[in-house]
Amino acid sequence: MKKSFTILSGLLISAVFAASCKKDETANPLKNEFIIRTTSPMIVGQRIDFAYGAGSLNGGLSSMQVVASIPGDAGTGFETVTHRTVNAVDLTTTVATSSVTDGGASTAMLIDTNATTLRYAYVIPEAARGKQVSFSFSAKNKAGNQASTQTPAYTISKMDMARNITVVGTAAGARYFSIADMKAYTQAEVDAGNLSAKIDFVYAYAATVTPSTTAYTYGHSLVSPAASPAYFPNGFTLPSAWTKNSTLMEKKTGTAVYDGQLKGDANISIYVADLDLQRQTFDGSVNYAITLANDGSVFMKTADGKYTAFIYVNSVTNAGSTAVISLKRYQNQ
Amino acid sequence: MSSFNLLGSDNQTVLVTQPTFANGLIDTIKCTVTAVAKFGTNITKVKPYTSLGANDMLVEPFMGVWTDFTQPQTYTLVSGNRTIRKPYTITITVQR
Question: Is B65 near chain A, with CB under 8 Å?
Answer without folding.
Answer: no
